[in-house]
């Protein structure tokens, strides 16, 4: 039987019980191995927990994390049930939180936002919800944790649902929000239904994750986008000399042998002569397959160019407006230059203007700041050294995203989601 | 795959495969001198198949390299050479024995002596000698908790060190491959695969693996709750004795620190069933090198280990 693969992200700090929640999910779904459990039992004992398992320790990977009781970086965890395979992007909330949440959310299908039932809707939860929406995650789960500390109160749960709902109304792009009352510490409503909250008749967390419908478009509904990564031209041999294949991963949509295609930004036209894979030629292919295309005409195509259907072409421009999440101490300022990586293309980008910065509390876009500081998210206008073929991020996560790299340190300093040509 | 279906979808193995091929092509395109680390173990066997899928009909745009401790299972070395010959690719063998002979590394002594740590010296020397700027490895994030934190493109400074607190954020499928001279990246195309995925993929692709992965009769001894292969020269401790048992290996490492598991699994399908039902992690069950401390893998990785 073939299983779906579901990627979800969580964010939060130690206080929210996020590590305990993930530990509980893994433990109760029997995904924790005996030797890992032995490790946790030993470590729990060393930290003074008598005979109790501190499930949070299951997810702390690094020495400093175990010593300081913190989570440093995004960690990826894997588990499977009979229905689905899961990849969790587990994001720490206390430090560099925007950077970590954006990273975790960039590949997720579902976002699990944690609330502490006692403390209500805090900034961090709002920020996570905002980032999930901004990063294009349509499905949100609000895990109202620590219900045991509010006497499993149905009223308290109701208050939090309406408070969060009021905030979330202003988020665009969220298709559905599912609220689940739980106690990760006691295992209530994580994998097993809680005997303490008989008033709750919705799904428990794991059940929901197993069943949630991930946003799905038939490949033919999405325009085909094939960024060329690599050109295959074997040397030697008469047969080999004729071979010229354009390799890449189909970012969206579908391609068929014989399709008329255009190559951007140049605009040359030809037809697909063959769709090659190591396992043989295909008549048709869909995202996210990795393929090699042979074309009927010899066009001069190299890495970074985009193959698509001419009637459903993306925007080609050198000036663009994008929401940028800033990830480093040195601020982003107008006039700064960066390397911009978009699909398989690298360009130089200059910051022309900063239009606004988002206030995560109010979701208002505040007037233009002089610069974007670490963990800020704002609308930025960029000019690139060569034209980019892109779609708005809201319609295509793969061709609408880019990263900014500092030319001197080589560090990744910004994450961008394209809004439009500027 | 059939696009006339109402909801065509790739299987999870095809999705993982496609992601890994994408990673390999990014490396080929953005680095000057990549290398693929091939040990003859199951994960690197999968890497070779993925490289075929990424680059054929052309030759691979990089050589293969094995860090040979001199304590490898002979069946694995025989398999390694045969597989490389079949592929028609170039293999570099970096030898731990040579590092010891040159005085670059010092042999451990005693009954628990292992060349596991010494491999780091040989690996980093070979990377420097050949000027490699990217090295593909078969490590997976499900293997070990320090690895759960590691990037697909894992940056190493000019001492080969990994700094887990200071990693580059990795977003979408956009990998930052920019480095300065003397630095390199380790690239892990199987980051999102689990041990079960690897075996299901080997079964799906009908890949050959070294015979030691299948149940076989072997002379073994038990130590620290693990079953080790006995070989000439191994010092036994008091109370240890050599017995003959039916075992197989879940991981392929140095004979001195890789334990076997008692198993009757003799086919790929039987291995898949065994792995799906196991209650122990592969490294917890079979790798003495991870048992040194709570952070044994983290410490070795910071120093430049695989």
Question: What can you see in these coordinates?
Answer:
The complex is a heterodimer of chains A (422) and B (306). In chain A, helix 4 packs parallel to helix 5 (123-134). Chain A folds into three domains: 4-211, Rossmann fold; 219-312, Beta Barrel (Elongation Factor Tu (Ef-tu), domain 3), CATH 2.40.30.10; 315-421, Elongation Factor Tu (Ef-tu), domain 3. With 422 residues, chain A is an alpha+beta fold. Chain A has helices at residues 18-28, 34-46, 63-68, 97-105, 123-134, 154-168, 205-211, 238-241, and strands at residues 4-12, 75-80, 84-92, 110-116, 139-145, 176-181, 226-227, 230-232, 245-249, 254-256, 260-264, 268-277, 280-282, 284-286, 290-295, 306-308, 315-326, 337-342, 345-358, 365-366, 377-390, 401-405, 412-421. The mean pLDDT of chain A is 89. In chain A, the strands form four sheets. In chain A, strands 7, 8, 9, 11, 12, 13, 15 and 16 form an eight-stranded antiparallel beta sheet that branches. Chain A has a six-stranded mixed beta sheet with strand order 2-3-1-4-5-6, sandwiched between helices. Chain A is built from eight helices and 23 strands. Chain B is an alpha/beta fold and 306 residues long. Chain B has two domains: 12-196 and 295-303, Rossmann fold, CATH 3.40.50; 207-290, no CATH class. Chain B is built from nine helices and ten strands. Chain B has a six-stranded mixed beta sheet, sandwiched between helices. In chain B, helix 1 packs across helix 2. Chain B starts with 11 loop residues before the first helix and ends with a helix. At the A-B interface, helix 2, helix 3, strand 2, helix 4 and strand 9 of A face helix 1 and helix 2 of B.
Show the helix and strand layout.
The complex is a heterodimer of chains A (422) and B (306).
Chain A (H helix, E strand, L loop, with lengths): L3 E9 L5 H11 L5 H13 L16 H6 L6 E6 L3 E9 L4 H9 L4 E7 L6 H12 L4 E7 L8 H15 L7 E6 L23 H7 L14 E2 L2 E3 L5 H4 L3 E5 L4 E3 L3 E5 L3 E10 L2 E3 L1 E3 L3 E6 L10 E3 L6 E12 L10 E6 L2 E14 L6 E2 L10 E14 L10 E5 L6 E10 L1
Parallel strand pairs in A: 1-3, 1-4, 4-5, 5-6
Antiparallel strand pairs in A: 2-3, 7-16, 8-9, 9-15, 10-14, 11-12, 11-16, 12-13, 12-15, 17-21, 17-23, 18-19, 18-22, 19-20, 19-21, 22-23
Chain B lengths: L11 H19 L3 E4 L4 H14 L8 E5 L5 H14 L3 E5 H6 L16 H13 L3 E3 L16 E4 L27 E4 L7 H11 L10 E8 L2 E4 L13 E6 L10 E4 L5 H10 L4 H5 L9 H8 L3
Parallel strand pairs in B: 1-2, 1-4, 2-3, 4-6
Antiparallel strand pairs in B: 5-6, 7-8, 7-9, 8-10, 9-10
Helix pairs in contact in B: 1-2, 2-6, 6-7
């Amino acid at each position: 039987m073939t299983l779906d693969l579901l990627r979800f992200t969580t964010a939060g700090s130690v206080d929210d019980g996020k590590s305990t929640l993930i530990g509980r999910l893994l433990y109760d779904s029997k995904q924790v191995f005996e030797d890992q459990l032995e490790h946790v039992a030993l470590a729990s004992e060393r930290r003074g927990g008598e005979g109790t398992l501190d499930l949070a320790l299951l997810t702390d990977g690094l020495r400093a994390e175990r010593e300081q009781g913190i989570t440093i970086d995004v960690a990826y965890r894997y588990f499977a049930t009979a229905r689905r395979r899961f990849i969790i992007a587990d994001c720490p909330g206390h430090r560099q939180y925007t950077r970590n949440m954006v990273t975790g959310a960039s590949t997720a299908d579902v976002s699990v936002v944690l609330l502490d039932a006692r403390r209500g809707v805090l900034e961090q939860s709002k920020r996570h919800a905002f980032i999930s929406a901004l990063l294009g995650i349509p499905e949100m789960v609000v895990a109202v944790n620590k219900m045991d500390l509010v006497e499993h109160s149905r009223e308290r749960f109701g208050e939090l649902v309406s408070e969060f709902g009021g905030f979330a109304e202003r988020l665009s792009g969220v298709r559905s929000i599912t609220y689940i009352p739980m106690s990760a510490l006691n295992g209530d409503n994580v994998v097993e239904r809680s005997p303490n909250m008989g008033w709750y008749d919705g799904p428990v967390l794991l059940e929901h994750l197993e069943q949630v419908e991930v946003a799905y478009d038939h490949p033919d509904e999405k325009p085909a986008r094939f960024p060329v990564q690599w050109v295959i031209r074997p040397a030697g041999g008469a047969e080999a000399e004729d071979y010229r294949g354009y390799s890449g991963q189909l970012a969206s949509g579908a391609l068929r042998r014989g399709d008329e295609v255009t190559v951007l930004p140049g605009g040359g036209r030809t037809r697909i002569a063959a769709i090659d894979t190591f396992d043989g030629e295909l008549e048709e292919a869909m995202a996210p397959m990795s393929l090699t295309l042979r074309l009927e005409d010899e066009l001069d195509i190299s890495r970074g160019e985009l193959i698509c259907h001419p009637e459903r072409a993306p925007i080609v421009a050198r000036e663009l407006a994008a929401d940028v999440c800033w990830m480093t101490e040195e601020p982003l300022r107008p006039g700064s230059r960066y390397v911009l990586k978009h699909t398989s293309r690298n360009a130089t980008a200059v910051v022309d203007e900063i239009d606004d910065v988002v206030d995560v509390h109010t979701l208002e876009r505040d007037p233009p700041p002089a610069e974007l500081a670490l963990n800020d998210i704002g609308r930025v206008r960029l000019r690139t050294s060569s034209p980019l073929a892109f779609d708005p991020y809201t319609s295509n996560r793969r061709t609408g995203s880019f990263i900014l790299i500092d030319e001197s340190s080589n560090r990744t300093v910004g994450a961008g989601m394209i809004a439009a040509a500027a | 795959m059939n696009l006339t279906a109402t909801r065509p979808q790739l299987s999870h193995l095809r999705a993982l495969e496609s992601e890994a091929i994408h990673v390999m092509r990014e490396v080929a395109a953005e680095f000057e001198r990549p290398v693929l680390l091939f040990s003859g173990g199951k994960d690197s066997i999968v890497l070779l198949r993925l490289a075929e899928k990424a680059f054929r009909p052309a030759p691979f745009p990089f050589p293969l390299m094995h860090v040979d401790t001199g304590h490898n299972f002979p069946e694995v070395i025989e398999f390694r050479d045969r597989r490389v010959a079949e592929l028609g690719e170039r293999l570099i063998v970096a030898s731990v024995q040579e590092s010891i002979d040159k005085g670059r590394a010092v042999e451990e002594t005693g009954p628990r002596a292992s060349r596991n740590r010494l491999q780091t010296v040989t690996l980093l020397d070979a990377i420097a000698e050949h000027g490699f700027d990217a090295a593909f490895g078969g490590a997976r994030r499900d293997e070990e908790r320090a690895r759960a934190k590691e990037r697909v493109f894992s940056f190493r400074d000019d001492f080969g060190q990994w700094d887990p607190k200071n990693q580059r954020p990795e977003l979408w499928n956009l990998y930052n491959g920019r480095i300065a001279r003397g630095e390199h990246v380790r690239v892990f195309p199987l980051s999102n695969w689990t041990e079960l995925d690897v075996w299901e993929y080997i079964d799906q692709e009908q890949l050959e693996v070294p015979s030691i992965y299948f149940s076989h009769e072997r002379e073994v001894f038990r130590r620290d709750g693990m079953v080790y292969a006995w070989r000439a020269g191994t010092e036994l401790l008091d109370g240890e004795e050599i017995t003959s048992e039916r075992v197989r290996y879940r991981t392929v490492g140095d004979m001195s620190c890789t334990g076997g598991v008692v198993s009757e699994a003799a086919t790929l399908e039987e291995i898949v069933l065994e792995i799906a039902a196991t209650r122990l992690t592969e490294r917890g069950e079979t790798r003495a090198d991870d048992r040194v401390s709570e952070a044994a893998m983290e410490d070795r990785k910071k120093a430049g280990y695989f």
